[in-house]
Amino acid sequence: MTEQELQYGEQVRVEPGTLLYKPGDPAAGKSIYYVVAGLVRLELSLTRGDRIVTYLHPDSVFGLTESLLDSTRLTGAYCLENSILYRWDREGFDLASSVSWELAFNTITGLTQYLRILNAEFGDRLGPAGGA
Amino acid sequence: MKIAFQAEGAITEEVRRKFGRTFPDKTILIKEGDIQQQIFWILAGEVYVTRRVGNKYKVLATLGKGELIGEMSFFDKSVRSATVISKGPVEALVFSRENFQDIFAASPQWTKRLLTSLSSRIQAMIEKLNSFH
């Protein structure tokens, strides 16, 4: 991250086990995160009780989807290690991503990868008969 | 994916010269099953997005001017999931991953549209996953 991107948000240090947000939380406020160092678990709980868990490593961006769509949190985010995160509000993220192609690239890549995971999970649930 | 680029005035002649290409009718821009990390930004004309079903190609969508094609594989290095064929002559900007900075410079606003579009697709897929009981 460069000074240019960092000026629009703030850096936070979080301990293992810290809950950053849980499903249903309002997405208002400073709610878009970038993993500078550490490890974060993103957990999607489905209505029938199973979960889809993904792990976010440094350079990952998360918390954006709900902010862009003005929805409540769709997933839960928990820190698994001592982590350093960068946090923007929506306006700050818009500014940072409009001046930094690297941040834009990382963010789009992260969303694309997450969508592919969800697509694969959906295909898996459909099974071979339902996939045609 | 339908993402209209409204800032086409920002496309300079230099960008067109460097990344612009013209495809004759029935040219395969993207082939299902390939690993190809290019993104196509259509400036003129239309393309068919197709998927092979048995020995035939089924048309999934027709995309045209201002739309972006091939973004999934471009960003996450996955295998192409559809075949894209020109429907008549097509003019497009063709970028590789190494040129992402050039796309961004040509139209920073497209990033926001792409992020919003991907977010909507994620939300829709979560709803579909939740529909299983």
Description:
The complex is a heterodimer of chains A (132) and B (133). By secondary structure, chain A is an alpha+beta fold. Chain A contains four helices and eight strands. Chain A is globular. The mean pLDDT of chain A is 87. The model of chain B has no long low-confidence stretch (mean pLDDT 84). Chain B has four helices and six strands; from the N terminus they run H-E-E-E-E-E-H-E-H-H. By secondary structure, chain B is of the alpha+beta class. The chains are: A alpha+beta (132), B alpha+beta (133). The A-B interface holds A 44, 46-48, 52, 64-65, 68-69, 71, 74, 94, 97-98, 101, 104-105, 107-109, 111-116, 118-119, 121-122, 125 and B 71-72, 75-76, 78, 100-101, 104-105, 108, 111-112, 114-116, 118-123, 125-126, 128-130, 132-133.
Topology, element by element:
The complex is a heterodimer of chains A (132) and B (133).
Chain A: H1 3-6, E1 10-14, E2 19-21, E3 32-37, E4 40-45, E5 51-56, E6 61-62, H2 64-69, E7 76-79, E8 83-88, H3 90-99, H4 101-130
Antiparallel strand pairs in A: 1-8, 2-7, 3-6, 3-8, 4-5, 4-7
Chain B: H1 13-19, E1 20-23, E2 28-30, E3 38-53, E4 56-63, E5 68-69, H2 71-76, E6 83-96, H3 100-106, H4 109-130
Antiparallel strand pairs in B: 1-6, 2-6, 3-4, 3-5, 3-6
Our count of helices of chain A gives 4
Q: Structural class, from helix and strand content of chain A?
A: alpha+beta
- The 3D shape of chain A can be described as globular
The largest inter-chain interface, given as chain pair and residues per side, is: A-B, 31 and 28 residues
Major sheet of chain A: 4 strands, antiparallel
Terminal CA distance of chain B? 29 Å
The number of distinct helices of chain B, counting runs of at least 4 residues, comes to: 4
State the total count of DSSP E strands of chain A. Answer: 8
Tell me what portion of residues of chain B adopts beta-strand conformation. 35-45%
Percentage of residues assigned to helices of chain A: 25-40%
Low-confidence parts of chain A lasting 5 or more residues at pLDDT below 50?
A: none
Largest sheet of chain B: 6 strands, antiparallel
Q: Structural class of the helices, strands and pairings of chain B?
A: alpha+beta
Low-confidence stretches of chain B: none
